[in-house]
């Protein structure tokens, strides 16, 4: 009986952990196709994917607004409206929908997500990158200089879980080993628990050093030192790491 209770508790813990990994809504942003958000207790907008890279917003007064999908990662879908020169971020991690103009960060909160739906295809795409990552590492990449290429399953999972780009994850780990030869540190540096967050235009490295730590602090993470421009002269992103 005690053994049964232990298994029941363990199963519940594993289930809760799995749900938490996918966030409050049980899905990640790779599969998101609909989000309903509120301002306080009042309905604000529904965002629905209506076609390839096409989204439709219907707000509280029935106004229909078209958005174009720019990209997405594990936690967020990033939209843009060129006619109004606006960016929008639907963030399942913080449950915020936030906006900003092309020359600004998406830091203006529009509403909070109450419901979100996804599809199996998006989840499969995310799992696919994780599996590709594992196949590129196991038996092929040494976990230390001159070390074995046979990885423990748990460490392989830590490195490749939620990898948005398998090739970049592997490249990152190889570079980390060449730099400091610390496999544990390399996994932390290169695991998929990172995301690119809009920061407005970043003009150079000194500008990034000013803006990216602030973006990281606002989102509860740490800046990795990485940044790049997504829309020339209008939008750049900071790479933020979450523990």
From TrEMBL:
Top-level lineage group: Bacteria
Domain spans labelled Mannan-binding protein: 205-240
InterPro entries (UniProt xref): MVL, OligoMan_bind_ChitinaseAct_sf
Signal peptide residues on this chain, from the entry's feature table: 1-21
Coiled-coil stretches: none
Sorted UniProt keywords: Signal
The protein's name: Mannan-binding protein domain-containing protein
Organism this protein belongs to: Catenovulum maritimum
Lineage: Bacteria, Pseudomonadati, Pseudomonadota, Gammaproteobacteria, Alteromonadales
């Amino acid at each position: 009986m005690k053994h049964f209770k232990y298994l029941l508790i363990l199963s519940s813990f594993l289930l809760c952990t799995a749900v938490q990994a996918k966030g409050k809504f049980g899905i990640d942003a790779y599969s998101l196709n609909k989000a309903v958000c509120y301002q306080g207790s009042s309905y604000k907008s529904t965002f629905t994917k209506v076609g390839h890279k096409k989204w439709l917003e219907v707000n509280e007064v029935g106004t229909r607004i078209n958005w174009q999908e720019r990209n997405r990662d594990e936690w967020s879908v990033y939209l843009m409206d060129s006619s109004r020169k606006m960016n929008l971020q639907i963030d399942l991690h913080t449950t915020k929908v936030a906006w900003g103009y092309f020359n600004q960060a998406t830091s203006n909160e529009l509403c909070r997500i109450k419901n979100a739906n996804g599809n199996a295809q998006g989840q499969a795409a995310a799992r696919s990158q994780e599996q590709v990552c594992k196949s590129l590492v196991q038996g092929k990449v040494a976990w230390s200089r001159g070390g074995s290429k046979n990885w423990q399953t748990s460490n392989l999972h830590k490195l490749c879980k939620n990898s948005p780009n398998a090739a970049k994850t592997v490249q990152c780990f190889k570079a980390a080993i060449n730099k400091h030869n610390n496999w544990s540190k390399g996994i932390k540096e290169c695991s998929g628990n990172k995301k690119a967050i809009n920061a407005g235009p970043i003009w150079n490295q000194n500008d990034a050093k000013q803006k990216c730590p602030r973006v990281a602090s606002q989102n509860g993470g740490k800046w990795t030192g990485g940044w790049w421009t997504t829309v020339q002269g209008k939008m750049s992103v900071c790479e933020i790491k979450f523990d």
